Amino acid sequence: MFSERRCMRSRHFSVWLALAAIAMVVFVPAPARAETPVARVTLYEVNEALRLKRANHDDTSELKRRLAQASLLGMDVVAVGPTSVFITGAFVKADASSDVDLATGRGPVRGTIQLLTDIDPTRNSLDTLLVTGELKIRGELDLTTAAVTATAPITGRWRAEYSPERGTYRGIFLIPFNMGGTYYYQNPADALPGFVCKGQVDDFGPWGKFCQVHSTEFVLGIPLTKALLLFTK
């Protein structure tokens, strides 16, 4: 009897240990994986085709979704640390689509980013840019702050084509606004670490510091929306 009770206690103890181990696996959080920055990329939105989708065909007043196709260009890629995809000084081209729910101000975004190298640096021309890398991106665009702070955050994941490299990214769109006859962006240094203002920084006291849109950040006299992206892996 004693031996049987001891055996039963042993079995109960073993079961308790097993349940405790399962509980630890389920409830003890795994340490977060540190993400290492690999590149800072600046792009400018040079084209956007916008469509507003109604809630249904019979309702002519309520708009449901904001659908956009955008093209962006840039010549400011800064590689951080050793990486085979991003090359400092590379040109960059992006084509992306977004589908934002107008009720929430948020929605998915997806697209392709091409990294390009100028094979003839003796002249400035778009016809000498060679594709050296390509990324696929997915994420979410947040337009809830656009009208208030002239910014729109974006976050998501990226993966390189023809390479195992992949990771996450976060960024922000800086929307130009007119103040006193001068166009400004929110200060990039306040938005993401490592990004700096290209134009003059003006201090407006309690309202903060704003970055003047530089003369090279206009096309046909129109100030361009600027995208700052920080890639990590």
Summarize the structure.
With 233 residues, the chain is mainly beta. Helices cover 15% and strands 51% of the residues.
Task: Quickly list its features.
233 residues, disordered N terminus, mainly beta, 2 domains, 8-stranded antiparallel beta barrel, 3 helices, 4-stranded antiparallel sheet, globular
Describe the structure.
This protein is mainly beta and 233 residues long. The chain folds into 2 domains: 1-30; 37-232, no CATH class. It is built from 3 helices and 14 strands. It has helices spanning 2-27, 146-149, 188-191, and strands at 37-54, 63-79, 91-101, 106-118, 129-142, 151-160, 166-174, 177-179, 182-186, 201-203, 209-212, 218-219, 222-223, 226-232. The strands form 3 sheets. Strands 1-2-3-4-5-6-7-14 form an 8-stranded antiparallel beta barrel. A 4-stranded antiparallel beta sheet has the order 8-9-11-10. A hairpin with a 2-residue loop joins strand 12 (218-219) and strand 13 (222-223). The chain is globular, with a radius of gyration of 25 Å. 26% of the residues are buried. The model is unreliable at 1-32 (pLDDT under 50).
